[in-house]
Amino acid sequence: MPQPFSQEQVARHKQANIMLSRVAGSLYWMSRYLERAENVARLVDVNLQILLDFGQVSDETLKEHWLPILRSTDDEDLFFQLYENADSESVTEFLTFRPENPNSLFSCISSARENARQVRDQISSEMWEVLNEAYHFIKSADATRVWHDGASAFYDQIKRYSHLFQGITVSTFSRSEGFEFIQFGKYLERADKTTRLLDMKYHILLPKVTDVGGAVDAAQWHAVLRSASAVEAYRRFYVADILFAKVIEFLIFQDSFPRSLVFCLQQMDHFAHLIADVPEDEYRSPGERRFGKFLNNLHFTTVQDIIQQGLHEFLMEVQDEIGAFGSHLYNTFMFAPPVDLQAEIRFHQQQEQQQQAC
Questions:
Q1: Residue 159 belongs to what H/E stretch?
Q2: Are 218 and 242 in contact (CB under 8 A)?
């Protein structure tokens, strides 16, 4: 006759599940934070280059240039608690070095490293070394030296750390559930940032309707492609000028480009199926079915449909779906609620009694 579970057995069982959830959560957030750092580095570097391209600009132009970037990261209110004016130095310092900003490069790399530290026994030593080196690199930097030595070189180094980490992860991390959480987090963050990048340009960066199709418009769409490292890929695909409809089509629908929205969403779907141990063509939970339906509808959407709906409205809808699916996966596999041991013991004892009665 099987013995009922003791308090110690229940505690060990729940503790094991909690540990697995915490490991998955740490790997997921480690990946998301590093991907976020790379995207912030891209955004700041490209927009600094835009200002250099246009030469001398007025204070009002600077404000129009930097405020959309703060809004795209949802940090505008926090910024004005720390600074009076949005100019090149204040915004780049805020997005790069300020620990008060949870989306700054310093905060993102610090958070990625801290999550990696919590699971050092789960990741390869080479992965840890890259994150540790990136942390000490940005910790030792300061705004004055970055401006003097060249901001572009500084942000390029941040991007290289991210690329190196991703390459080492693919080369040294076992293809287990941990790898799946790392990849899911990376592609979720990347998909979210692609939508924010497009929304920032289309609705805020262009100051006048009369500029559509002009030199300023073309330069800004070129900057959007540069922010996604997509200029060369776009040129190979479209042997034509940089046109807003083509940029939208490329960054949303081009499923062969690793930073396009569709590519990232398909990868999210793929790794979510692996995590849930569900065949690729099945969607069992309500969260999975919602995302599967959204992804299927997206395959039948065209650029003309998006323009007719409104790019901003379309991107807000996509962000909602990304957030909902990310929350579903997090709550299902990574969230570890507080444990009521007495309730767990009573539950297991009731099950044992039911088995004995049968």
A1: helix 151-172
A2: yes
Q: Which two tokens stand for residue 183?
A: 């990849």
What contacts 24+ positions apart, CB below 8 Å, involve 276-282? 276/332, 276/333
Residues with pLDDT less than 50, the chain: 1-16, 205-207, 209-210, 338-341, 344-345, 347-348
User: In terms of residue numbers, what domain contains 156?
Assistant: 12-173
Distance, CA of 116 to CA of 23 (rounded, Å): 9
Domain count, the chain: 2
Cα(280)–Cα(269) distance, rounded to whole angstroms? 8
Task: Say what the pTM is.
Answer: 0.85
Predicted local confidence at residue 87, as pLDDT? 84
Residue 353 domain flag? no
Is residue 217 in some structural domain?
yes
Residue 110, token pair as written in the block: 């610090």
d(C-alpha 291, C-alpha 86), whole Å: 38
Written as six digits, the tokens of 34 are 């590093």
CA–CA distance, 332 with 121 (Å, rounded to integer) = 24
Asked whether the CA dihedral 272, 273, 274, 278 is positive or negative, the reply is: positive
User: Could you give the CA distance from residue 227 to residue 208 in angstroms, rounded to a whole number?
Assistant: 22
Segment 170-212, tens digit of pLDDT: 999 999 899 999 999 999 999 999 998 888 876 554 445 445 5
Instruction: Indicate whether 29 and 107 sit together in one domain.
Output: yes
Q: Tokens representing 283?
A: 């969607």
Nearest-10 Cα torsion for 176, 182, 187, 193: 180
Q: Which two tokens stand for residue 294?
A: 């959204």
Q: What would the DSSP string read from start to end of 336-357?
A: -PPP-HHHHHHHHHHHHHHHHH
